[in-house]
Amino acid sequence: MDLTTLIFKTVFLIIILMVTLIVAMYSTYGERKVAAFMQDRRGPNRAGLFGLLQPLADGVKMFMKEEIIPLTANRKLFIIGPSIAMTTALLTGVVIPWGGTLTIGGHEFSLQIADLNIGILYVFAMVSIGVYGIMIGGWASNNKYALLGAIRAASQMISYELAMGMSIIALVLTTGSLSLHDIVAQQHGMHWNIFYQPLGFLIFLTCAFAETNRAPFDLPECETELIGGYHTEYSSMKLGFYLFAEYINMFISSAVVATLYFGGYNMPFIDGLGLSQNTVTLLGTGFFFIKIFSMIFLFMWIRWTLPRFRYDQLMNMGWKGLIPLGIFNILATGIYYFFTELK
Amino acid sequence: MQTLTNRSVVASDKKMTILEWIYIPAIIKGMSITIRHFFRKKTTISYPEQKREFSKVYRGQHVLKRDDEGRERCTACGLCAVACPAEAITMKAAERKPGEEHLYREEKYAEIYEINMLRCIFCGDCEDACPKEAIFLTDRIVESQYKRKPFIYGKDILVEAMDLRIDISARQTEAVYQFKLDKRFAHNK
Fold it and tell me: What gap in Å lies between CA B32 and CA B40, rounded to an integer?
């Protein structure tokens, strides 16, 4: 790797980190606005124009709050918990292809930080480590509600990771690659994977909701029965980290869904326009972000529509519903390709 | 059992059908409802900038009226304090000194007149009891405060200024005045 590439990668890494944080920050604002609009309210509109400074105000509030570590808590683990949640949430973004290639001064730069040949597995690994943040935090709090929340998070994560894996296997059967870059490249034009794997998409989406611990699968938090679940004992910015990690996860999940099923940065009908390579790349990145924001909106839309599942319903749906469906999906895909030998 | 409306649904724990079990039709139905609300006109009133139109006879913050020559009408008779079910009103009477005739209408006046707005239930009985047409409830809102102390309104807030007279004609119509004169309906007999 030569020096220019290294410098470009570093700058790009910082940009992606900033974009991730800013999008997550404004997702909190968006969440409150969407919630308000769906309940015929106006939402935050006092801090700045249309309340756009609200996330900053929330951040300041979080920092100013008293930081409490309970005497009975395990101090080290108590601090490690939110750190893991935040770190793993931020780590996932590196394998996502944010755009095509940019040509600057004769050099070609790919708008993807690391094109791992096992990109999807990396995302899975990071998301799975993310649950340790919740588990450690819940365990270290030394509080029954926090522990219950942590147990729920762990079992929910394990159950739904399986079904998610099943839907991915079917997807890999159609694309023939684990690299996110290749998967996006194959969806050029309108060959989006959602048209080839509609059932897989539904399974993946459901599992994505469960993995990000969002409604209707927000059982680990469960304000009404677990008074906040794993973050019951947390206050100040450590609580902020947990909540913020959830929004980062939502952004990354949306990006992964857009990459895997909605063609990533591919725009339909862009080839016929005769635009230069760089313009196409930048437009594609813009279009990718539109897809991501639509997905985030879907996340919020679902959250403010559906009630929370009961715990047995959640487990029933995971083990008796989604996993058999996932296996069926793999079988159907496999049989289809066995007889047609398309790829 | 007789139902009050025709909207009531009999609850049961019957087995879910396949369509219900896959949840998706129900989810789509729910989402269509929320998205319709998303684009609906908001019912919120942005309070300080925008105010809701009150009823003409809204009972808000009190005013102690002056007469047309600017003299305080209140004579500190204490009937309002007696009528008050929340015991929010306290007052201290004083005698008018010579030379104060332009300030007070009669020989006795309220030196201190306080209403505790945290106790007040805005029932309007004080206004009903007043024989001198001195106290009225208006359509003004009692402002919020950070401490309890400022909620005890004294004469500095309650007595109207001559250049900013409070219009109470909506509450004090001729019919209301005649009704008040008829002591058969008075609360404090």
Answer: 13
Inter-residue contact B80 to B73 (CB < 8 Å): no
Q: Is B43 in Cβ contact with A37 (below 8 Å)?
A: no
Instruction: Look at residue B146 and tell me whether its pLDDT is greater than 90.
Output: yes
CB of A310 within 8 Å of any CB in chain B?
no
Q: Which two tokens stand for residue A268?
A: 């339909």
The whole-number pLDDT of residue A227 equals 77
Interface predicted TM-score of the whole assembly (ipTM), two decimals: 0.73
* Min distance A30 CA to chain B CA atoms (Å): 13
Write down the domain spans for chain B. Answer: 62-188
Q: What pTM was computed for the model?
A: 0.78
- The per-residue pLDDT for B113 is 92
Contact A89, A81 (CB under 8 A): no
**Among the four given CATH numbers 3.10.450.50, 1.10.287.130, 3.30.465.10, 3.30.70.3270, the one describing domain B62-188:** 3.30.70.3270
Q: What is the pLDDT of residues A155-186, one digit of tens each?
A: 888 888 888 888 888 888 888 888 888 888 88
Interchain contact, A40 vs B33, CB within 8 Å? no
Q: Phi-psi region for residue A141, left (φ > 0), alpha (ψ -120 to 50) or beta?
A: alpha
